[in-house]
Design brief:
Blueprint (H helix, E strand, L loop, with lengths): L2 E6 L4 H11 L7 E7 L5 E7 L2 H8 L8 E7 L14 E2 L5 E9 L2 H10 L9 H16 L3 H11 L2 E9 L2 E10 L4 E4 L4 E4 L11 E4 L4 E6 L5 E4 L4 E2 L4 E2 L15 H7 L1 H9 L3 E2 L4 E2 L2 H4 L2 H6 L2 E6 L1 H18 L3 E5 H4 L10 E7 L5 H12 L3 E6 L5 H5 L2 E4 L12 H21 L4 H21 L3 H11 L4 E6 L3 H16 L2 E6 L17 E5 L5 H12 L5 E6 L4 H5 L2 E5 L7 H19 L18
Parallel strand pairs: 18-19, 18-20, 20-21, 21-22, 23-24, 23-25, 25-26, 26-27
Antiparallel strand pairs: 1-4, 1-10, 2-3, 2-4, 5-6, 6-7, 7-8, 8-12, 9-10, 9-11, 11-15, 12-13, 13-14, 16-17
Helix pairs in contact: 3-4, 4-5, 7-14, 7-15, 10-14, 10-17, 14-15, 15-20, 16-20, 17-20
The structure holds 5-amino-5-deoxy-1-O-phosphono-D-mannitol.
5-amino-5-deoxy-1-O-phosphono-D-mannitol binds next to helix 10 and helix 17.
Length: 614
């Protein structure tokens, strides 16, 4: 979802900005644009609908000399995707150019007020309102640009990360943030801006995460200055970026998604490293042990998340209930935030988010904190807003996930939930030491079993050819396999655009069974667990209605083999760890079906990697 890049320095401004935009493509967007301030202070803005490559083609014969610049990929919220609505937006007099990530909720009121003062608008966007407001304040109050930005941001309701450049001033970029990510990269005599660190990782690993209600003033030959909306200077806290450029490349795979699926043996090793200790006798999770009393005292856990992270939360619920006997509720963050939740100080709220920037999850955290809950984060991106906003937490450490469809982050989240459940069980004594050692020992072997499961790749590629043109899919599972079914269905629909529904297998007879015929394949997740006999009946129910069945079963299964049209055998692991294995064939199946259909799996239509608006 919208990406911002900025650069001020002696390098090739245009190239740095365009390459930075390409790095942010994974976030999802529909148009792109760039504003360049030439050494003489001329402000040139170029923007186009479509990919960054379109923008490059458009810029080929343009004046690209610059000393500073800002650039943007837009994911439309207010106003259709178009050349005109693409960012940067100008003030009416053409003095300012601004890029924005987020939404200005009171833009209509502000727009009408500005119109009454004679302002004219040329786009449908909320962003144009902000840039016009800044310029209006500057001219009517005869104040500096920074003062005008401070004043305008005080009037704005909503979320924003913005960057602004000014005609006649090639030596300054002003940037600000509220509830949308913004990072400043400090180089040697040059300064970068990004929605995250990916646009400038090859130039510097020194970063400053701009905080809510802060303004970063980037000026040539001067140290970075950060002020708040009341003009008080705040400390510039320089941190180190924790990923490498190699992690942002495809490494020989055709797509990031395939690379990320195949990386899982090593990402899960990284996720577990240092956390299963003493020969798998014990789990060490500092985020829990540093707040022992909270976990000892808690009488309910509420998980808040969106999308795939919500599915991981459903598995977290089963793990924590089974291993720790603590009641767990799982809420969509977008519903939770508006549901007047009843929360007490003895509740722990766990916020799960790969990006660490999802707007609804962030808002849910604020509500939980305001009501006195202890909030624990499970995130991937180090230093993102969610890990910073939570009281404690655990990183999944699976490296940058670029494919929009989440794969390795899902298995990382489920692994962290397993570690978390073991750590709490250890603290509260709900499992015996041998029981902890048994699950931990198997968890340590999971990367090896994932590697074994990935050997199904060729078989799944062949299988995908049979089902590429199915128009609907049903994914069924029970117990630990039910969230896996939901996740499998989400994976298929988001990258292949095939309608797919995940269902608890036993619920099927209360409605979805009506859909089953020879045109409707069912993917049934049926490992050898305590519900195995039950799901065999569900398989029979599908079979007897003429539906075709792809079953994910434990190696050596004979019963379902005779009923299903296709079986994919996975290694035998303890029931609570099965999702880490059974989700792998579903990731591959959706990948190959989407590839067969010629879809852009890494950047599916309409989707954004980091959903920073409501
Ligand atoms: O970054 P988050 O984990 O908070 O993102 C939540 C969802 O937007 C995300 O999981 C989405 O559903 C993915 N596209 C799923 O593959």
């Amino acid at each position: 979802m919208c990406g911002i890049v900025g650069y001020l320095g002696d390098g090739n401004v245009y190239e740095i900005l365009i390459n930075g935009l390409k790095r942010l493509e994974y976030r999802g967007y529909d148009s792109a644009g760039i504003a360049l301030v030439s050494p003489e202070g001329k402000l040139n803005v170029y923007k186009t609908l479509g990919k960054v490559s379109n923008l490059e083609a458009y810029c080929r014969d343009k004046n690209l000399t610059a000393r500073a610049g800002i650039a943007h990929t837009r994911w439309a919220t207010h106003g259709e995707p178009s050349d005109c609505n693409a960012h940067p937006h100008y003030s009416e007099d053409g003095r300012l150019a601004l890029v924005h990530n987020g939404t200005i909720e009171n833009y209509q009121v502000l727009r009408e007020a500005l119109q009454q003062h004679g302002c004219h608008f040329s786009t449908q966007t909320d962003t144009e309102v902000l840039v016009q407001l800044i310029e209006y304040i500057r001219t009517s109050n005869s104040c500096t640009l920074i003062e005008a930005v401070r004043e305008a941001l005080k009037q704005v309701v909503g979320a924003y990360a913005v960057a602004i450049v000014e005609r006649g001033n090639p030596d300054t970029i002003i940037a600000a943030r509220k509830s949308s990510p913004l990072v400043v990269g400090i180089g040697d005599g040059e300064t970068f801006l990004g929605s995250d660190g990916t646009p400038f990782i090859e130039y510097t690993d020194k970063v400053v995460y701009v905080q809510d209600d802060e303004i970063a003033v980037i000026t040539r030959d001067q140290p970075l200055k950060i002020i708040n909306l009341d003009n008080e200077e705040t400390k510039v806290d320089v941190k180190k970026l924790e990923f490498s450029i190699a992690q942002l490349e495809k490494g020989g795979y055709d797509h990031f998604m395939l690379k990320e699926i195949f990386e899982q043996p090593s990402t899960l090793t990284d996720c577990i490293r240092g956390r299963v200790v003493d020969n798998a006798q014990r789990v060490l999770l500092n985020g829990v042990f540093d707040h022992k009393e909270k976990f000892m005292d808690c009488n309910r856990i509420i998980v808040v998340a969106c999308g795939t992270s919500w599915h991981a939360g459903l598995l977290g619920k089963q793990l924590i209930q089974d291993l720790c006997a603590i009641p767990v509720e799982v809420e969509y963050a977008s519903e939770f935030r508006y549901s007047h939740p009843v929360i007490t100080e003895r509740d722990i709220v766990i916020a799960v988010s790969q990006s660490g920037e999802t707007a609804d999850t962030l808002a849910a955290i604020q509500i939980a904190k305001a009501k006195g809950a202890f909030v624990y984060g499970i995130s991937n991106v180090v230093g993102a807003s969610i890990p910073r906003e939570t009281h404690s937490g655990t990183y999944i450490h699976v490296g940058p996930e670029i494919g929009v469809a989440s794969t390795k982050a899902f298995t990382g989240q489920v692994t962290v939930f397993t570690l978390l459940a073991l750590a709490i069980a250890q603290l509260r004594g709900t499992l015996t030491q041998p029981q902890i050692a048994e699950v931990s020992g198997h968890l340590q072997q999971i990367p090896h079993y994932v590697k074994e499961t990935l050997k199904l790749n060729d078989k799944i590629r062949q299988l995908s050819l049979i089902y590429t043109y199915a128009r609907n899919f049903l994914y069924l599972g029970r117990g630990y396999s039910y969230p896996v079914a939901l996740e499998g269905a989400l994976k298929l629909k988001e990258i292949s655009y095939i309608h797919a529904e995940g269902y608890p297998a036993a619920e099927m007879k209360h409605g979805p069974i009506a859909l089953i015929d020879s045109e409707m394949p069912s993917v049934i997740i049926a490992p050898h667990d305590h519900l195995y006999d039950k799901i065999v009946s569900n398989v029979q129910q599908v079979k007897s209605r003429g539906g075709s069945i792809i079953a994910i079963v434990t190696k050596g299964d004979t019963v379902i083999r005779d009923l299903a049209d296709h079986v994919l055998e996975v290694p035998d692991v303890p029931e609570c760890l099965t999702p880490l294995i059974t989700s792998i064939p579903l990731q591959l199946l959706s990948y190959y079906i989407a590839i067969n259909k010629g879809k852009d799996v890494d950047m599916p239509r309409n989707l954004a990697k980091s959903v920073t608006v409501e």
